[in-house]
Amino acid sequence: MFAGLYIERKSLMHSLDPRSKLLWVLLVLVASIATQFNGLKSLPVFLSTILALSLSGLGSGLAVLLIFNSMVFLLVTTLIWAGIYSSQGNILLELGWLRLTDVGLLVALGKFFLIINPILAFVVFFASTKPYLLMWTLEKFKVPHKLALTFVIALSLMPTMVRAAGDVIDAQRARGLALDRGGILDRVRKHIPIIVPLFSKMLSDIWDLSLVLATRGAGYGRKTYIFEPSWKPPDTVFSALSLVFYGVVAAWGLGLIG
């Protein structure tokens, strides 16, 4: 129905069963939670997501772009946790009210990786899994068909909404709308000519989509799939390695191993 966030490639991650990739995403999330108070222990999880990006054919450039766009969040996180842990550990930087210690820096990095690691993992999962197989995977995990269909459609419509918003903004700027001028309230007011036509277009598209789904009998009767992926030996190896690796990292983060 939609390409969505899926990117057509021939790579190792694309060839894996969606269930093994979903298990990997959950393990990345668990390991990130377990190591959230120590950025050094979160680093192996981060490096593994970079490796997964490379194995998916997306390249590490996407990770660099995401991290670059997250630098403000990293700065805010560092300032917050540096203040909380300013009395613990060795002082690395003291500038006025700012007092950065090694403990505060490690915690800040851990909190940053807690956010960025699952994001990178989900990017790999959605970019290497067709929406058709994504819905099949959700139903295999006992998610109701209507809920799975709604989630996949919403996810698939995201790129369409971004492109539509860009077209509306370009059209309004061509008409003389200056979005980067004036105060905050004035800039908010200027976005009204963008929001109204964007919502109008999206409602029109959703109405057409609902008619298509109704004619195809979506949501009625039992859903069947013509093409279903099969669990193969590479999926077993990938899942086993993921369980061992992220299990050790999580145990390390929780202090169960030295």
Automatic annotation (TrEMBL):
It is found in: Membrane. CDD domains: EcfT (cd16914). The chain crosses the membrane at residues 21-39, 45-65, 72-93, 105-127, 147-166, 237-257. The keyword Transmembrane applies. It is a multi-pass membrane protein. This is Energy-coupling factor transporter transmembrane protein EcfT. InterPro entries: ABC/ECF_trnsptr_transmembrane. The keyword ATP-binding does not apply. GO terms for cellular component: plasma membrane. Keywords: Membrane, Transmembrane, Transmembrane helix. It comes from Infirmifilum lucidum.
